[in-house]
Amino acid sequence: MDQTVRGRHARSTRRESWLPHFVLIMGVVVFAFPIYFALIGSTHDAATIATGRMPLLPGAHLLDNYWQALTSGSGERVSSAPVRILMFNSFVMALVIAAGKIAISIVSAYAVAFFVFPGRMFFFWMIFITLMLPVEVRIIPTYKVVTDLGMINTFTGLTVPLIASATATLLFRQVFMTIPDELAEAAKIDGAGPLRFFWQILLPLSRTNIAALFVILFIYGWNQYLWPLLITTNRTMETIVIGIVKMIGSSDAQTDWNLIMATAILAMLPPVAVVVFMQHWFVKGLVETEK
Length: 291
Description:
globular, 15 helices
């Protein structure tokens, strides 16, 4: 009798577990199909895609399309800088923004969390208030400053105005607040000064949070659109996002969709590689709360 009840319970549990799995699978299909469609489109020629009846199986132009996108970036109807240059610009921009945001934020959070000085909380709340001022609100004065300093079409102009991050500062401050005061006192008794305590104790304890923030900030920098659109007038300084938008052009114009889809697939590779490579640290940094 007990075995029968347990068997019915097991079957009921299996049936109930199918629903969330089915919902998750459908979500993956809905999310992945456009990517699959772009991948397949990048293997066909422009004429096949223009017919509106593109097959859902790979074509014979995969190497030609990707080689053309990487080396020239131009086709019969679109003209762009080589995708390898656009990806290099985006990679430098994303890397500098991520590293710069982390470096500035962790130092500022260290000062706010562990030092006592006049106006400490005032400066902290000033940093917090900047969360209410997105790039779009302060973009005109920022653009004026960058223009006056002659940083148009430079990596400095692309990255420096986006480096400061109130969000990262707040996150690092919360991490530092979880560190026991006894640890700081023990380090001081052992003769560790502020820099040694920061370098040998705080940084190792924060490595998972740094990794998680690096992934988020790298993708943030890679996907930037508005600021690079304003700050670059030379095609060789454009980012990959700007390049794709300009390749598409207006909706009425005919475009080489095979090159555009190949460029879109190439544009997804670096962020995906960063997430896959740092997945363990990323997840650990998001869920780890105790030090």
